[in-house]
Design brief:
Blueprint: E1 2-3, E2 17-18, H1 20-29, E3 37-40, E4 48-49, E5 53-54, E6 64-65, E7 69-72, H2 74-77, E8 86-94, E9 108-112, E10 124-127, E11 156-159, E12 169-170, E13 181-183, H3 191-199, E14 204-208, E15 212-218, E16 222-223, E17 234-235, H4 238-249, E18 252-259, H5 263-273, E19 279-283, H6 293-299, E20 325-331, E21 333-334, E22 338-344, E23 349-354, H7 358-376, E24 388-393, E25 399-400, E26 406-414, E27 419-422, H8 431-434, E28 439-443, E29 447-450, E30 455-460
Parallel strand pairs: 2-20, 8-9, 15-18, 15-19, 16-17, 19-23, 21-26, 24-27
Antiparallel strand pairs: 1-29, 3-14, 4-14, 5-13, 6-12, 7-9, 7-10, 8-11, 20-22, 22-23, 24-30, 25-29, 26-27, 26-28, 28-30
Helix pairs in contact: 1-7, 4-7, 5-6
């Protein structure tokens, strides 16, 4: 890597240029995990447990069969073969869910189904394929349905193979024992965890709910996909990208159609959305143009910094409880230099205002919004940010980077070779390249050129 001379991060006008790490720390410092609630199992999918869950009863709760076949005593089938089968008297059927069970005595067997409790006296299960199925013929391929041949629950069965004790029997508590830890606090509930909770009889669990994230894109030039374009218009992709990214991060996402470049309309839209938002994300309108509506709308209410709402005795009596507290700032990064962050509304809902260029918007989401969502979920610090690795740059030529800016370039990571290759150019509007990237290559602020073969930090997006 080639390094440039140290740069003064303060522009001539005295406005502070924030580093990526400072901005992220400011965001996470103002975000707190959501309060726990009790939810039904399916509603809790994707949520984080806030307490340990222990097993109230053993699983399985009783010895049961792992095969369709016959429950037998091992002494009765010892030495059995096709030439000299063991002939046993069938004393009844044992189906899954059976209550009263037949007792299997010497020379007896009970027809048993998968999952059914092992009846008293039985020591093993022989699969139906090891028997004649009670037909008096050769090896059975399966059982005739009980409704079609109820007589096969009685009579005789010929067993062609011996069975050891406990063969094809699932022992009580072989999965988990009563008192075992089923799931630890901090576990994210996916389908397997939901299944385990149901299996041990839990109908509800105490979790931190998935954050509700409202995404608004701004710009009079934006048209919704599926509608015709007119002169000077483009399709709104940002709101779709960020809503999808919010879902991917674990949130419940609400996408609001593009808001025109009108400050009053935007303020009204945001006010309407606060009722269903744990986090608001806007895209576009945060730079220095005459039509940067987010900055106009939210700055005009009173930009008083991005700290959390003052508590009793803080001496900040001039701040209204419903005042907007958004700080618009410039970051030493590319893409994504203009950013906004603060709180809004009576509940001081966090709001992150991202730039409007598609790549800038998405990179900003990954660096700042995703960690905020994961923090709201109550995930441990190790799971808040995307994982990163070190990889060797594989490229035809050196990559340039502006002095004093941390650059995030789209890349394709090859885990097998430990290399990363650039995808597309550095332009913040090049959304097609973003669709083919699976990582972000990070070029530090003090580096202006990265030669092929150089090791880089790589943020994994997959």
């Amino acid at each position: 890597m080639s390094s440039s001379a140290p740069q003064d991060p303060r522009p001539a006008d005295g406005h502070r240029l924030w580093s990526v790490d400072e901005h992220l720390a400011d965001v996470l410092g103002a975000v707190r995990p959501l309060e726990p609630i009790e939810l039904q199992l399916l509603d809790a999918q994707g949520c984080v447990l806030v307490e340990d869950v222990t097993v109230p009863v053993a699983l399985p709760p009783f010895d049961n069969s792992s095969m369709d076949g016959y429950a037998v005593r091992t002494a009765d089938v010892q030495g059995a073969s096709e030439e000299f089968p063991a002939v046993l008297t069938v004393v009844g059927d044992v189906a899954a869910g059976s209550g009263e069970l037949p007792t299997v005595g010497p020379g007896e067997a009970a027809r048993i189904m998968t999952g059914a409790p092992l009846p008293p006296g039985a020591e093993a299960v022989v699969p139906v394929e090891w028997t004649d199925g009670g037909t008096g013929g050769g090896a059975a391929a399966g059982m005739t349905p009980a409704s079609a041949a109820p007589e096969q629950a009685g009579g005789e069965v010929r067993v062609h193979r011996a069975a050891e004790a406990r063969a094809h029997v699932r022992a009580r508590g072989s999965d988990v024992q009563a008192g075992d830890l089923a799931l630890a606090a901090g576990t994210v509930l996916g389908p397997p965890q939901i299944a385990l909770l149901a299996a041990i009889g839990r109908g509800t669990v105490r979790v931190r709910p998935r954050p509700r994230v409202v995404v608004l894109s701004t710009g009079s030039e934006l048209v919704q996909p599926g509608e015709p374009l007119t002169a000077g218009t483009i399709y709104d992709s940002n709101s779709f990208a960020l809503a999808a990214a919010a879902r991917d991060a674990g949130a419940i996402a609400y996408r609001v159609g593009a808001v025109a470049d009108d400050a009053d309309t935007l303020r009204s839209t945001i006010e309407d959305q606060l009722i269903r938002a744990d986090l608001l994300v806007t895209t576009g309108g945060v730079s220095v143009g005459a039509y940067d509506v987010v900055k106009e709308a939210l700055s005009s209410v009173g930009s008083v910094g991005s700290s959390a709402a003052p508590g009793p005795g803080d001496g900040d009596a001039d701040v209204e409880v419903d005042a907007t507290r958004i700080d618009f700032r410039k970051l030493a990064m590319q893409p994504g230099k203009p950013q906004g962050f603060g709180t809004i509304g009576p509940d001081h809902t966090p709001l992150l205002a991202l730039p409007g260029n598609p790549v800038s918007s998405y990179v900003s989401f990954e660096l700042f919004v995703r960690p905020a969502i994961r923090t709201l979920m109550g995930l441990p610090e190790s799971e808040v940010r995307r994982p990163s690795v070190r990889a060797v740059l594989k490229a035809d030529k050196a990559l340039g980077s502006p002095a004093g800016r941390r650059q995030f370039l789209r890349g394709k990571y090859d885990a097998e070779s430990g290399t990363v290759s650039p995808v597309g150019g550095s332009g913040s509007h090049l959304i097609a390249a973003l669709a083919h990237a699976d990582s972000l290559m990070v070029v530090p602020e003090d580096v202006t050129s990265v030669e092929p073969g150089t090791e880089l930090e790589v943020v994994l997006l997959g």
